[in-house]
Amino acid sequence: MFLRNLIQASAILPFLYNTASAQIACNNSPSLCNKPYNNVTYLGAHDSPFLRDESTGFSTSGNQYYDTTTQLDAGVRLLSAQVHKLNNTEGNEAWHLCHSSCNLLDAGTLGDWLSEIKTWMDTNQNDVVTILLVNGDDAMPAELGQHFQQSGIAEYAYTPPSTDILPQQWPTLQSLISNGTRLMTFVASLQPSPDFPYLMDEFSFMFENDFENDAPTDYSCTPDRPGDLTSETAASSGRMFLMNHFLYSTQLFGIQSPNDTYVNVTNAQTGLGALGTQIQECTGVYSKPPNFVLVDFFNVGPAMSSVDAANGVDTPSGRRSIPNAAKLEEFTGGVVKRQGSILAVVIAVVVSVCFGL
Ligand SMILES: *[C@@H]1O[C@H](CO)[C@@H](O)[C@H](O)[C@H]1NC(C)=O
Ligand SMILES: *[C@@H]1O[C@H](CO)[C@@H](O)[C@H](O)[C@H]1NC(C)=O
Ligand SMILES: *[C@@H]1O[C@H](CO)[C@@H](O)[C@H](O)[C@H]1NC(C)=O
Ligand SMILES: *[C@@H]1O[C@H](CO)[C@@H](O)[C@H](O)[C@H]1NC(C)=O
Ligand SMILES: *[C@@H]1O[C@H](CO)[C@@H](O)[C@H](O)[C@H]1NC(C)=O
Prior knowledge:
By secondary structure, the chain is an alpha/beta fold. It has a single domain, classed as Phosphatidylinositol (PI) phosphodiesterase (TIM Barrel), CATH 3.20.20. Helix content is about 35%, strand content about 15%. The protein contains eleven helices and 13 strands. Strands 1, 2, 3, 4, 5, 6, 7, 8, 9, 10 and 13 form an eleven-stranded mixed sheet that branches. Helix 3 crosses helix 4. The N and C termini lie far apart (about 85 Å). One 2-acetamido-2-deoxy-beta-D-glucopyranose binds near residues 175, 176 and 179.
């Protein structure tokens, strides 16, 4: 009897250990659980919902080869997107995720995207996720907030003690997880509202370097937004640092699109203009790594390697492995579609110029 219990107990022991260690991994590593939110480096997918894949006919406006759910599965923990106002087919105004213009790339509604993230968070309960919305058409807090409420994701939202005073100390990942407030939401920019106190104004809490880079020699660690900050005042302000690290190519009529041909260098760990090189350079400037690094085509590099190095994480767990390569279109009409989308914009521009719109 005793022996049988012992055998049964020893049979489930490895299982217990496995679940125990899986439970204590926060954002894919137990070593991050007790770190304050602002003492971690997070990999960010720049323009997370704007895809260069089959769903968009490999649009040259796409910034990522894999969708938001796949990004999260692979370890991305900051998702950025641009929000624009659009009249939908019923003639009502709706908030869509569009790349600069909804004629260029319309990735659907804000609400649908938030639901996708909510679904992922429902099944991944030891992860802290950050959303950064670029408020292209000056949405009011209620206009954005209603989609956070309706999608249900608001139930995970963290509310800061103050909407404009930086916290002395951010909570640890473990306390955000234990409290069920695992979603951090920043908007650039927003006048905070007491009705939606979880929508944080980005530049009250963060600063960024310049994001307009065309060549691997262009990157800088110097604060660009909010204005009027030097490296010294940015650091002493206590704001978190978001490091933009992606390249633009300029197409016909000055339309900018992500530079995909060079991304294996841009997202590499070493070399001129590489992500790892820039993280080290900025770590030198601020005496600590950036909190967020925002990249295009996150799976190439892979960008995650430099982020793990910054966090001192060498055995991450629970991530899905994604090919470290571009997703290439099959040669079946994709090229035609892609030119079609640029042509549509050119026509739209010409029409609006001609008619003075
Ligand atoms: C986190 O804190 C450790 C210990 O103080 C420090 O070495 C590291 O640079 C910090 N990382 C970030 C991203 O703040
Ligand atoms: C939507 O349509 C209404 C009515 O035609 C118009 O007044 C409004 O400016 C349009 N909004 C956008 C964002 O196009
Ligand atoms: C967790 O929730 C409690 C009760 O609402 C609150 O007092 C505490 O500040 C929260 N902690 C964090 C880290 O948000
Ligand atoms: C991407 O950037 C590299 C390095 O600056 C440049 O050589 C290349 O032409 C760019 N690609 C495109 C498509 O603009
Ligand atoms: C990037 O890709 C080009 C073309 O395939 C290759 O020649 C180069 O060695 C790659 N560089 C890195 C850092 O992977």
